[in-house]
């Protein structure tokens, strides 16, 4: 059976990934006043250079990339100028100039990276779900969903995400698969029985703007799987339904719709995978779905998707395993499968896998850190199993967190998010989480060094960097 | 014999219910000519005949494949190995050996019948890849049961509490997904692209069948065709395509593959027709699930559709999915008053006869006879 390694325990960065002397001296200038211990809490919330590790250039093999990073720090310490376009300048001076005028704000960075990436792969990724969204089956479900308006069934939120997604992160999985495909380029020789293949198969081997048709299908399949997973995770337990959610009848009907639409997407993913005519790809992508299911059994959540604190000690290693199972695995394995489809060798497959894995983890850390840097709403809820909290518990003990939680009943609790946020901000957890985010981003960047310079490769790098900006 | 005329309104009507252009209508029109199978035997189909046409002693279907069946549930549980104790418990829940394991049995018999037809020694066991298919068929079936129970808000299944009542609906759905995914991995591991495509079609059909159940056709004439199409997708597709898959793995010609497919399809539709009849006939204890369950879910099955021929007032109830008080009782009464159960049975018999006609194109073997016997067992089952 085909197997891919589970996430290795976090280790010290290999030397080649660490800061070179040249860069230390250059970046040291901007950081002299900031050391790890003397940063006031509120400073953590705004984009400022934080500490040495946060400015590690990610890729020393590539001078351009590295200079890009120093420039970012300058940019961060400068007041932002709105309305300036980002330039992918080639020389350092050009880049510094451009970046110094670069608009700050993390959403913009991420959205910019996404829209640039979309151009590279040839079309807006929201098209990726268009085909199945327009199917009779899902239109039918959409019609039925009107009955649920006013209830708190999670399927409404998922459905809304199709139309508008504030974080623009709905379809990044497919986008990453396409980018990795394009960055890797045409692969080696095709496996077996080339002569007697029929029309469909040769279509799969046609390249459109540097991406095989089969890889585009795979990107679509990856999105379908993820959406199906969201749908099915949004099934509510009828026993726990409260009057605030809606009637049991409505919630049960919502479940029916969630199950059917998720099943529909999974079934389409299944047939789509089969048509790729590569059993190894079917196997590895299926194993990613199995990972997601296993992952969702690790933690308990309520009907609105709020995760409970696990009973046992939950350490950052557990967080990493859980996050890998729930979201990293699908991206990593889809990226690897895209390499298989192009006929790339194992070493390239592994790199693509690593890119996907570490990118997913860095992205998750970025999202987990958002509530700790955005001070607009002090009572804004955040996940009790998010990385900063887990790290804080490792540092200050579990009680430091559980003190702020009142268990109302077996399946519900009250959390003082304001106090809990201050508690976490008072310790080193936010730092540690950022460190971890940089660490994963570096590993992701290290993985793409296997590809030759290209627009697609830069787009992959830019997306990775975007998730390390706080 | 009073069967709705529209069933026979032209060729291709019933063949709508399958992905393949089968010749399902023909036997329905010439009901009593199925014995002269040899005459239509093409050379490729009969080339590997070894035995004479001496009648083989009727064999117990289950006994024949008991060796392969003995490890079925253990093999499935081995696939569903996970560290999560809740997921393991839930995904193993229905593989407790209490099920009928009807699908694996058919698949294994078909495997051996095809293998023998293709030149394998008499009584040789099914290939390991074919045994995997029988296991996968049971897993797909179970995964769909788990989801159906949440959709139908069922309480009991096979005489015990539904898995959705153990740890909530969310986990039940994810468990179903997990079983399905593991079966998909096991399928891919066989390494045959065509077989992967065949069985992924089943998964699509299962979902489309479920969607078809959501709606009712307004046109009364289309309703029966809609019902049969739904029945194919929800029940027969799994048997049809897994039979075809084991025929492929046996190295069969296209003709033999088609025979396997047609057998599975016809047997599957007959199986469901009987199931729908039993829903009106049995008592709760016997079935392990509540009776008239279909009506309560708003579903109009064959007996009701036949009854509506005599009682047109049922049509309005069918359209509103028996949602008003008294609808279910009235529909039940209409079914018992008419000979609609008898009509359903006759229809099921026709499908069985066609299944027999198909399978008799294979070389005679104990397995082939067992598959013939099986059609009678399907017709006469009480639960």
Automatic annotation (TrEMBL), chain A:
Q: Could you tell me which SUPFAM superfamilies the record lists for this protein? A: Terpenoid synthases
Domain of life (superkingdom): Eukaryota
Q: Where is this region: Disordered?
A: 187-206
Q: Which InterPro entries match?
A: Isoprenoid_synthase_dom_sf, Polyprenyl_synt
The annotated regions of Acidic residues compositional bias extend over 189-201
Q: Which UniProt keywords apply?
A: Transferase
Q: What GO terms are given for molecular function?
A: prenyltransferase activity
GO terms for cellular component: mitochondrion; transferase complex
Example GO BP: isoprenoid biosynthetic process
Family (UniProt) = Belongs to the FPP/GGPP synthase family.
Q: What is this protein called?
A: Decaprenyl-diphosphate synthase subunit 2-like
Q: Which organism is it from?
A: Branchiostoma belcheri (Amphioxus)
Which gene codes for it? LOC109487344
Automatic annotation (TrEMBL), chain B:
Tell me a GO cellular component.
Answer: heterotetrameric polyprenyl diphosphate synthase complex
UniProt keyword Lipid biosynthesis, yes or no: no
Entry's localization field:
Mitochondrion
Matching Gene3D superfamilies: Farnesyl Diphosphate Synthase
UniProt KW keywords: Isoprene biosynthesis, Lipid metabolism, Magnesium, Metal-binding, Mitochondrion, Transferase
The principal location of this protein is mitochondrion
Needed co-factor(s) = Mg(2+)
Note the SUPFAM superfamilies from the entry: Terpenoid synthases
Question: What EC numbers are recorded for this enzyme?
Answer: 2.5.1.91
| CDD domains associated with the record | Trans_IPPS_HT
Top EC category: transferase
Q: Which reaction does it catalyse?
A: 6 isopentenyl diphosphate + (2E,6E)-farnesyl diphosphate = all-trans-nonaprenyl diphosphate + 6 diphosphate; 7 isopentenyl diphosphate + (2E,6E)-farnesyl diphosphate = all-trans-decaprenyl diphosphate + 7 diphosphate
InterPro entries, per database record: Isoprenoid_synthase_dom_sf (IPR008949), Polyprenyl_synt (IPR000092), Polyprenyl_synt_CS (IPR033749)
Q: Which GO terms describe its biological process?
A: isoprenoid biosynthetic process; ubiquinone biosynthetic process
User: Sorted alphabetically, which Pfam families does this protein's record hold?
Assistant: polyprenyl_synt (PF00348)
Could you state a single Gene Ontology molecular function term?
A: metal ion binding
Describe the task this protein carries out: Heterotetrameric enzyme that catalyzes the condensation of farnesyl diphosphate (FPP), which acts as a primer, and isopentenyl diphosphate (IPP) to produce prenyl diphosphates of varying chain lengths and participates in the determination of the side chain of ubiquinone. Supplies nona and decaprenyl diphosphate, the precursors for the side chain of the isoprenoid quinones ubiquinone-9 (Q9)and ubiquinone-10 (Q10) respectively. The enzyme adds isopentenyl diphosphate molecules sequentially to farnesyl diphosphate with trans stereochemistry.
Q: How does it assemble?
A: Heterotetramer composed of 2 PDSS1/DPS1 and 2 PDSS2/DLP1 subunits.
Q: Which PANTHER family match?
A: ALL TRANS-POLYPRENYL-DIPHOSPHATE SYNTHASE PDSS1, GERANYLGERANYL PYROPHOSPHATE SYNTHASE
User: Could you say which protein family the record assigns here?
Assistant: Belongs to the FPP/GGPP synthase family.
The protein here is known as: All trans-polyprenyl-diphosphate synthase PDSS1
Native source species = Branchiostoma belcheri (Amphioxus)
Question: What gene makes this protein?
Answer: LOC109486654
């Amino acid at each position: 059976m085909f197997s891919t390694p589970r996430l290795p325990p976090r280790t010290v960065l290999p030397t080649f990934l660490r800061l070179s002397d040249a860069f230390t001296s250059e970046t040291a200038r901007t950081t002299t006043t900031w050391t790890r211990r003397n940063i006031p809490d509120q400073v953590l919330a705004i984009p400022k250079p934080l500490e040495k590790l946060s400015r590690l250039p990610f890729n020393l093999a590539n001078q351009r990339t590295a200079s890009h990073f120093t420039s970012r720090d300058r940019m961060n310490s400068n007041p932002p100028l709105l309305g300036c376009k980002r330039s992918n300048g080639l020389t350092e001076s050009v880049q510094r100039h451009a970046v110094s005028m670069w608009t700050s704000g993390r959403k913009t960075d991420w959205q910019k990276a996404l829209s640039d990436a979309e151009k590279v792969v040839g079309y807006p990724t929201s098209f990726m779900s268009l085909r199945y969204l327009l199917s009779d089956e899902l239109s039918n479900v959409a019609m039925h969903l009107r009955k649920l308006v006013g209830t708190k069934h999670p399927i409404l939120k998922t459905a809304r995400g199709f139309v508008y997604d504030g974080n623009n992160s709905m379809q990044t999985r497919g986008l990453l698969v396409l980018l990795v495909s394009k960055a890797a380029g045409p692969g080696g020789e095709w496996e077996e029985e080339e002569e007697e293949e029929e029309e469909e198969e040769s279509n799969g081997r046609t390249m459109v703007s540097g991406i095989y048709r089969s890889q585009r299908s795979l990107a679509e399949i990856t999105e379908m799987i993820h959406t199906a997973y969201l749908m099915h995770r949004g099934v509510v337990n009828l026993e726990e339904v409260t009057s605030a959610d809606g009637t049991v009848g409505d919630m049960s009907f919502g479940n029916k719709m969630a199950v059917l639409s998720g099943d529909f997407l999974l079934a389409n993913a299944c047939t789509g995978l089969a048509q790729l005519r590569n059993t190894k790809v079917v196997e590895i992508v299926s194993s990613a779905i199995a990972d997601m299911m296993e992952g969702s059994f690790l933690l308990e959540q309520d009907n609105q998707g709020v995760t409970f604190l696990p009973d046992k000690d939950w350490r950052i290693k557990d967080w990493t395993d859980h996050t890998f199972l729930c979201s990293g695995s699908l991206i990593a394995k889809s990226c690897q499968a895209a390499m298989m489809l192009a006929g790339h060798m194992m070493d390239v497959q592994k790199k693509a896998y690593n890119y996907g894995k570490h990118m997913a983890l860095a992205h998750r850390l970025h999202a987990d850190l958002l509530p700790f840097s955005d001070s607009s709403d002090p009572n804004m809820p955040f996940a009790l199993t998010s990385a900063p909290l887990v790290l804080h518990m490792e540092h200050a003990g579990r009680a430091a967190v559980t003190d702020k939680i009142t268990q109302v009943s077996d399946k519900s609790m009250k959390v003082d998010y304001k106090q809990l946020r201050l508690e976490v901000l008072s310790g080193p957890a936010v730092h540690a989480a950022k460190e971890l985010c940089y660490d994963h981003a570096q590993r992701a960047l290290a993985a793409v060094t296997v590809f030759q310079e290209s627009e697609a490769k830069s787009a992959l790098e830019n997306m990775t960097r975007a998730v390390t900006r706080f | 014999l009073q069967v709705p005329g529209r069933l026979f309104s032209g060729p291709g009507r019933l063949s709508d219910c399958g992905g393949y252009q089968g010749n399902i209508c023909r036997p329905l029109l010439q009901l009593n000519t199925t014995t002269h199978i040899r005459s239509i035997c093409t050379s490729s189909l009969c080339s590997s005949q070894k035995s004479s046409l001496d009648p083989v002693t009727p064999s117990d279907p289950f006994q024949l494949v008991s060796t392969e069946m003995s490890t079925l549930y253990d093999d499935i549980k081995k696939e569903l190995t996970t560290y999560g104790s809740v997921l393991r418990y839930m995904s193993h829940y229905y593989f407790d050996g209490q099920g009928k394991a009807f699908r694996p049995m058919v698949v294994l018999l078909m495997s051996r019948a095809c293998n023998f037809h293709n030149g394998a020694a008499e009584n040789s066991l099914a290939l390991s890849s074919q045994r995997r298919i029988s296991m996968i068929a049971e897993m797909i079936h179970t995964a769909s049961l788990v989801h159906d129970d949440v959709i139908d808000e069922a309480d009991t299944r096979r005489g015990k509490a539904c898995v959705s009542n153990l740890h909530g609906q969310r986990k039940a759905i994810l468990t179903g997904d997990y079983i399905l995914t593991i079966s998909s991995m096991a399928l891919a591991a066989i390494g045959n692209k065509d077989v992967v495509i065949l069985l992924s079609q089943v998964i699509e059909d299962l979902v489309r069948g479920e969607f078809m159940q959501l709606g009712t056709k307004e046109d009364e004439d289309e309703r029966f065709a809609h019902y049969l199409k739904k029945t194919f997708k929800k029940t027969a597709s799994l048997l049809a395509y897994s039979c075809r898959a084991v025929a492929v793995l046996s190295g069969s010609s296209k003709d033999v593959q088609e025979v396997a497919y047609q057998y599975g399809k016809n047997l599957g539709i007959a199986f469901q027709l009987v199931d729908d009849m039993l829903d009106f006939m049995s008592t709760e204890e016997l079935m392990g699930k509540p009776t008239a369950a279909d009506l309560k879910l708003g579903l109009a099955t064959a007996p009701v559709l036949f009854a509506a021929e005599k009682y047109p007032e049922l049509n309005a109830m069918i359209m509103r999915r028996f949602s008003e008080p008294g609808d279910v009782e009235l529909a039940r009464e209409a079914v018992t008053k008419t000979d609609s159960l008898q009509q359903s049975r006759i229809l099921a018999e026709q499908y069985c006869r066609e299944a027999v006609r198909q399978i008799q194109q294979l070389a005679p073997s104990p397995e082939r006879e067992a598959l013939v016997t099986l059609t009678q067992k399907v017709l006469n089952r009480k639960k």
